[in-house]
Amino acid sequence: MSLAKVGSPAPDFTMPIAKPGDTAKTVGSTVSLADYSGKWLVLFFYPLDFTFVCPTEITALSDRMEEFAELDTEMLGVSIDSIYSHLAWMSTPRDNHGLGEMQYPLASDITKKVASEYGVLLEDKGIALRGLFIIDPNGVLQYAVINSLNIGRSTDETLRVLQALQTGGLCPSDWKPGKPTLSV
Predict the structure, then answer these.
(1) Which residue of the set 4, 18, 31, 54 is catalytic?
(2) Please, what are the domains in the chain?
(3) Helix, coil or strand: residue 85
(4) Please, are residues 47 and 89 in contact by the beta-carbon 8 Å criterion?
(5) Least C-beta-crowded within 10 Å: which of 109, 113, 114, 156?
């Protein structure tokens, strides 16, 4: 079993997914790390469907998907729930505590293998912490952050870090797009 380590190849995965527009009859295609070859990938784990903090993060990322797409970046959300739970949550309107219309798929790590390999599995609870990983077009893990169950992630910070990584330069503290990188 390979473990996620920044600067090393990201652990490989293949998982079933629920995609935007899927129905109970069409849900269940799979996705693997190789599907993202040549693109940046924001891979993030969340604890469970139909919870409180999770939809705020998932919908915030979905609502800004156009900005990620402009940076040649794909998004994949992962939890230990089934694809049918994902589909039900995606089919539930936002004003009724659902996700509503989504711009990227949700993967099912029902075996918990992928969460374990990315170091986010809480074995005693059987769920994942809030882990976010940025994988470059060559499949190398470039960024990893893991949050407590109670703390949502920042879409602005995810975009900032992604843009910093894409400069290929040395980015000082609080660097923002348009600011110079460090010269050494």
Answers:
(1) 54
(2) 14-152 (3.40.30.10)
(3) helix
(4) no
(5) 156
For residue 184, what are the contacts with CB-CB under 8 A and spacing of at least 6? 170
Coil, helix or strand for 78? strand
How is residue 159 written in tokens? 């975009």
DSSP at 146: E
8 A C-beta contact, residue 4 and residue 134: no
Alpha-carbon distances, residue 19 vs 31, 59, 104 (angstroms): 10, 14, 7
Helix (H) or strand (E) holding 157: helix 155-167
C-alpha 97/C-alpha 14 separation (Å) is: 29
Active site residue 54: yes
pLDDT > 80? residue 102 = yes
pLDDT tens-place string over residues 5-24: 999 999 999 999 999 999 88
The two three-digit tokens of residue 125, written as one number: 């609870």
Which residue type, as a one-letter code, is found at position 57? Answer: E
The helix, strand and coil proportions of the chain, stated in percent and rounded to the nearest 5, come to 25, 25, 50
Residues of the chain with pLDDT > 70, as a percent, come to 99
